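Students often ask why we bother encoding 3D structure as a string. The short answer is that it lets us treat folding as translation between two languages. Here is a chain of 148 residues written in the first language.
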Amino acid sequence: MKTSRIPLAIALSSALAFAVGCAADRDTQVAAEDAVDMTPADQTTPPPVEPIDPAMDATADADAGLGDGQSSDQPVDDTWITTKVKSSLLAESDVSGLDINVDTLNGEVTLRGQVESQAQVDTATRIAREIKGVTHVDTSGLTVAAAE
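And here it is in the second language, the structure alphabet:
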């Protein structure tokens, strides 16, 4: 019995979009909360900004890139691209989207995992290339499972 992957793709897209939105709004929310605590006299002179110690910053790991020491020049765009590619793969019935890992760095998408056929590699590549903002698709990490 084959079930539809569309609800899973929608749920994943929604959760990741929410996470990206929360991260982007974090700085705005902190600034707004600081402004509420200020008296009218204090509002003319902004409070000094203290540098954030990376060891104490909860988002330092999230901004660290792909775990290989690289960081992106466009982390929000890369997160959006990754989310869009992954959800599109999950929605495609001809691709085993759950078996494909998607990473994006500066618009370059890397697909890794095991698929059932070369046709699935081709379909996954086409899907990734169709996403706005993708500059390159690397499929060298995709392997085709041996036929049993």
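Translate back mentally: Residues 58-67 have pLDDT under 50 and may be disordered. Keep this in mind for the problem set.
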